[in-house]
């Protein structure tokens, strides 16, 4: 992914947006936890800050993830967003901006990092996914199983217990 900056770098305050275009970073698939399904989509915005160019990337990528609770494979939409400052000079060790030269800035690292960061640690197929029974493996989204849940076992001792009425005599 590249962005052309030949116009925007001419004067401070200028801002340009463009649709992100392939080729997508070659190592993107290898950096992701889940396989990409289709190509990412997004926009690049470049703002001339005077001393530097501020580049913002934003978009969506679709991956085929596995639910951390019920292990079902499901399509997961990742919304990614990140920004990076670029200057026509080499950064020192303390600087958080990067160098660029010429009419284009290569955004492969920025886009890859943004999409990797957008991946949730433990994706779930839906917020209220009930998950699998740890004992028999039954998918609780399909219905309850015959196992007693830990909560039931805790209260099992009370089964058949009928509180006595206070003696009124
Ligand atoms: Zn699930
Ligand atoms: Zn069970």
Structure description:
The chain is α+β, with helices and mostly antiparallel strands and 169 residues long. Helix content is 13%, strand content 30%. It is built from 3 helices and 7 strands, in the order E-E-H-E-E-E-E-E-H-H. The chain has helices at residues 28-31, 108-118, 150-156; strands at 2-4, 15-19, 41-48, 53-66, 73-87, 98-99, 104-106. The strands form 2 sheets. It has a 5-stranded mixed β-sheet. A hairpin with a 4-residue loop joins strand 3 and strand 4 (53-66). It is elongated, with a radius of gyration of 27 Å. The N and C termini lie far apart (87 Å). The relative contact order is 0.17. The chain binds zinc ion (2 copies).
The side-by-side strand order for the widest beta sheet comes to 2-3-4-5-6
- Which residues form runs of ≥5 with pLDDT under 50? none
Main sheet: strands, sense, barrel? 5 strands, mixed
User: Share of helix among residues?
Assistant: 10-25%
Question: What is the chain-wise order of helices and strands?
Answer: EEHEEEEEHH
Alpha-beta content class:
alpha+beta
Head-to-tail CA distance between termini: 87 Å
Integer average pLDDT: 90
- Provide the list of bound ligands, each named once: zinc ion
Tell me how many strands there are. Answer: 7
CA gyration radius, whole angstroms: 27 Å
């Amino acid at each position: 992914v590249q962005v052309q900056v030949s116009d925007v770098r001419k004067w401070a305050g200028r801002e340009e947006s463009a649709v992100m275009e392939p080729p997508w970073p070659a190592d993107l698939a290898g950096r992701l936890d889940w396989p990409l399904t289709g190509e990412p989509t997004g926009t690049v915005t470049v703002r001339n800050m005077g001393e530097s160019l501020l580049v913002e990337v934003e978009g969506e990528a679709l991956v085929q993830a596995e639910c951390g609770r019920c292990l079902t494979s499901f399509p997961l939409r990742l919304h990614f967003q990140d920004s990076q400052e670029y200057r026509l000079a080499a950064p020192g060790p303390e600087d958080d901006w990067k160098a660029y030269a010429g009419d284009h800035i290569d955004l492969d690292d920025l886009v890859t990092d943004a999409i990797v960061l957008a991946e949730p640690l433990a994706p779930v197929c839906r917020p209220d996914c009930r998950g699998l029974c740890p004992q028999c493996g039954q998918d609780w989204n399909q219905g309850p199983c015959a196992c007693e849940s830990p909560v039931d076992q805790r209260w099992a001792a009370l089964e058949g217990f009928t509180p006595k009425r206070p003696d009124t005599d």
